[in-house]
Design a protein that fits this description.
Number of domains: 4
Helix content: 40-55%
Shape: globular
Structural class: alpha+beta
Radius of gyration: 29 Å
Length: about 650
């Protein structure tokens, strides 16, 4: 029964990881305040900014035409007056920025600012204000705004207060906790593979049998566990410091070369797990590390850990790669935290069983059930390998892997997995299955239930819980849901009894909007139509490989209230930042970074960076006819009511400005 319980845990863990929601956009800057009395009623407010590794914060003084300078605004009060301006205590770094083609000053790791305040006829008060700043990592920039409140006590540090900061801290914390538990879950799963699980009793026995002292064996076991953590975490550290940049994530998720490599690797590992062949490292590599184990002591424990890691790579390689890819999307501390979570899960049982060897009796014995774990993993790898083909198909518009075809393949894969769990299909290394246990039956039931859930997707059902893993709705060749939606009368605002669109949109043969919405894929064309029809412009910065974009469309745009506003009150333009269609040479231009922008995607990405100082998707902007923002732009957020309020605010602000627009 124990082995079926573990198998049940494997499937639940895989399903949970496959449907998990990506973390919110994090704030790479943490602010702290300290107020100290300097003389009389004068106080100095010292403002400290802690900046995440790899990010930088711009100075308070920058040339025109550049990024947003760090700006401190203090609310006026009869209780105090400002003495002078905010001073930079830290010395900024000065470098030439290729994107803006300007010499800019910025801070990395840490920055300190100072403002002197003098009280007026009062002994104590709160100083409130706002900070506007821009944080950048390579070519990715995030605009942020924070409220703060500082009590002039002279000796206590203050942290930012207000809803915006609390939300930012929550998002940053949740992002790191998300990747930690994500990696921890996959690390636990890696323990159940045939390369690792049998090593647990063997490794523990090694420590117990080769030491004269029980205490010494426990210490060496702890060194063994810490060595595993150190080795894996060092990989995360290297990725964070040297390996990747934010631009890497875009290349990783959209270019055909890395995606075809990942697809082939997942297929190869799946075939190996099914029993077609064995993936092994060169024996000389493991022999060298294994020979060091005989030295014993701390050195022997370290090389024992290294040997375990090398031996286990043939099973945990795709799991480790999956964790690293997910962790590297946010960079900063994420790869380090990801590898820390993975390694803790990996090292924990070895250490615990070495300290409490009696617990080994409770472990289920190695056997055929381990191969079942391996085969179940193979089915999942086979299913998720399609994601890399999907990205290539969407980005390069091959039209080979539509949503219905993709779902049909998934239905086949998970149906076969259900039959395998029932013992109707056997592979090379499977043991004879004399009867189907209760837990194995439950797993098979879960697999078939998932298949039943997928079937409505064949006729266009949104399948919201896994929308980020599927091709876009527009790629469906027979979308019955959209056909029914279009057949319903929907009121729309028209100009001179014409179509809601002013003219046929460019690139509509390869790019599409979901849910039958009509719109444009070229900014100038959409802006001209918005001015003609006297409507606000809705800009959707989106990507073919952007899972969060698909999730927003599936869970937020699908709401009838959102659809009605988008359809009737806005002119929509979807700007794909990873669209690789090359434009005619007459439409090329050289951007501030000195590079010629030849494709639709590069021009859209350049516009997002240069106009809105951000390089992340999804990103939604509302503009009036004078190209001024109508509301604070929004990123990934699944709060439907907040999204509706965002659209309503844009409409209300547009009505106020209507008389002044072009």
């Amino acid at each position: 029964m124990k082995k079926y319980l573990l198998l049940f845990f494997v499937t639940i863990l895989l399903i949970a990881n496959s449907t998990s929601i990506s973390a919110q956009i994090e704030d790479p800057v943490t602010w702290g305040f300290k107020a100290k009395k300097i003389e009389g009623k004068k106080y100095e407010i010292v403002i400290n900014a802690s900046i995440e590794q790899g990010w930088h914060l711009y100075s308070t003084s920058l040339p025109e035409g550049g990024p947003i300078a760090t700006t401190f605004t203090f609310k006026q009060s009869p209780d105090f007056k400002l003495v002078g301006k905010v001073k930079e205590i830290s010395i900024p770094i000065k470098e030439h920025d290729e994107i803006f083609n300007l010499d800019l000053s910025f801070f990395s790791k840490e920055a300190t600012f100072s403002q002197v305040v003098e009280l007026i006829d009062i002994e104590t008060t709160n100083v409130e204000g706002n900070i506007e700043y821009q944080a950048c990592f390579s070519d990715k920039c995030i605009y942020l705004e924070k409220d703060f409140s500082v009590k002039l006590t002279g000796n206590e540090s203050q942290k930012l207060e207000g809803q915006q900061q609390k939300a930012s801290e929550k998002n940053e914390s949740s992002s790191l906790w998300y990747i930690f538990f994500y990696a921890l879950g996959w690390g636990l799963l890696g323990l159940l593979t045939p390369c690792v699980y049998p090593m647990i009793p063997m490794t523990v026995s090694f420590f117990l049998n080769n030491e004269s002292s029980r205490l010494k064996s426990i210490i060496n076991a702890l060194v063994f566990g810490l060595s595993i953590i150190a080795i894996y975490t060092s990989i995360g550290l290297l990725v964070s410091l040297f390996g990747l940049s934010p631009n890497f994530a875009t290349v990783l998720t959209s270019h055909w070369i890395p995606n075809i490599i990942f697809f082939l690797l997942f297929i190869a590992f799946a075939a190996s797990f099914f029993g077609l062949f064995e993936i092994t490292l060169p024996s000389s590599l493991t022999t060298k590390t294994d020979s060091k184990v005989e030295k014993g002591g701390f050195i022997g424990s370290f090389f024992m850990a290294l040997t375990l890691i090398l031996v286990s790579l043939s099973c945990v390689g795709p799991i480790l790669g999956n964790v690293l890819i997910e962790a590297s999307r946010g960079l900063g501390l994420r790869p380090i935290i990801g590898m820390l979570g993975f390694s803790i899960a990996f090292a924990l049982p070895f250490t615990i069983f070495a300290i409490f060897p009696s617990l080994l009796k409770g472990l289920p014995k190695s056997g055929g059930w381990l191969n079942s774990v391996k085969v179940v993993l193979a089915f999942f790898m086979l299913a998720f390998s399609l994601k890399f083909l999907m990205i290539i198909d969407d980005t390069y518009h091959f039209g080979l892997l539509g949503r219905d075809v993709y779902i049909a393949i998934w239905i086949s894969i998970f149906s076969l997995m259900g039959f395998y769990l029932l013992g109707k299909i056997k592979f090379k290394h499977d043991s004879e299955l004399k009867h189907v246990g209760v837990f194995r039956l439950l797993l098979a039931t879960a697999s078939f239930a998932f298949v039943v859930y997928l079937i409505p997707g064949m006729i266009g059902a949104p399948l919201k819980s896994i929308s980020g893993l599927l091709p876009p709705q527009a790629s469906h060749s027979f979308d019955l849901m959209t056909m029914i939606s279009k057949s319903k009368p929907v009121p729309s605002v028209k100009v001179d009894d014409r179509s809601p669109l002013c003219e046929a949109p460019k690139y509509a043969d390869i790019l599409h909007l979901p849910y039958g919405l009509e719109g444009y894929f070229n900014y100038n064309q959409a802006l001209a139509c918005a001015r003609t029809q006297k409507k606000p412009l809705f800009i959707d910065f989106v990507g073919h490989s952007c899972s969060n974009c698909k999730e927003m469309e599936s869970k937020v745009w699908s709401d009838p209230r959102v659809l009605e506003k988008l359809r009737n009150d806005y002119i929509i333009v979807a700007l794909y930042i990873d669209e690789r269609l090359e434009l005619p040479e007459s439409e090329w231009y050289t951007a501030k970074d000195g590079k010629t922008k030849k494709t639709i995607g590069k021009q859209n990405a350049d516009m997002q960076i240069s106009r809105f100082n951000i390089n992340g998707q999804p990103y939604y902007v509302l503009l009036d006819g004078n190209e001024k923002t109508l509301a604070e732009p929004r990123g990934y957020n699944l709060d439907v009511d907040a999204y509706i309020k965002f659209l309503d605010n844009g409409i209300e602000e547009y009505k106020k400005r209507r008389n002044t627009l072009q």
